[in-house]
Amino acid sequence: MKPRALRWVIAAAMVAGVMSTQAAPWLGLVKTGTSSQNSDTIFLGTLTFSMDLRANTDGNPVGALEYYIVTSPADAVTYGTTPLTALNNPFVAADMTGLGQSPTAGATVNSVWAANTVWFKAGEPDYSAFSDQSIGTYQFNVSSLAMGSYVFTPVGTVLAYGSVEINTFATPGSFELIVVPEPGTWTLLACGGLMAAWRNRRRSSR
Q: Among 120, 118, 112, 87, which residue's Cα sits nearest to residue 100?
């Protein structure tokens, strides 16, 4: 095939690919009050930490939504004392099923059934399609966490009506929470290190 003809074939294939591409629905956690931050560092002993749950569809009307949150390491984090169920537009409390309950305070985040949340609009099978938006906020109790890194990952399924019947959520990235010692602890560690270094130097000079 001639180079010019090959270029036309490649261009046509690229155009067809772009036309057939659809954004996959996704579910993600970001720091409360930010548009895209997916990591944060907190001091040891912080009592609670809140994050927004954000979602979007692939442009098709939505029939139902089900999701929960898992953590790594597993079972390290519990929901806070006042976890807020996501009830923002287009979801309303009346659309929650009896099977899917909002997480209760103290429930383990990694416990699927304790954290399962399901919406289904009976009698009206379509929610309108929606773009990236916050559908609610969850509060986590991190007071018992040791120093280290903790990863939160939302997992779920959207039932969509249109060209795509069922989609599993693709998360745009998990949320990483890094727990570090409090400033006073760092000061004590630094002082201890300086003292040890001074002692070693004094011994070696004798």
A: 118
Q: What is the pLDDT of residue 184?
A: 61
Please tell me the pTM assigned to this model.
0.76
Q: What residues does each domain of the chain span? A: 22-201
Asked whether residue 20 carries a pLDDT value surpassing 60, the answer given is no
Predicted pLDDT at 201: 67
Task: Give the rounded distance of the alpha carbon of 190 from its chain centre.
Answer: 35
Which is more confidently placed, 130 or 203? 130
Give the separation between CA 156 and CA 167, rounded to whole angstroms: 9
Residues in the chain: 206
Highest CATH level, class, for 22-201: mainly beta
Could you give the CA distance from residue 27 to residue 145 in angstroms, rounded to a whole number?
25
SS3 letters across the chain: CCHHHHHHHHHHHHHHHHHHCCCCCEEEEEECCCCCCCEEEEECCCCEEEEEEEEECCCCCEEEEEEEEEEECCCCCEECCCCCCCCCCCCCHHHECCCCCCCCCCCECCCHHHHCEEEECCCCCCECCCCCEEEEEEEEECCCCCCEEEEEEEEEEEEECCCCCEEECCCCCCEEEEEECCHHHHHHHHHHHHHHHHHHHHHHHC
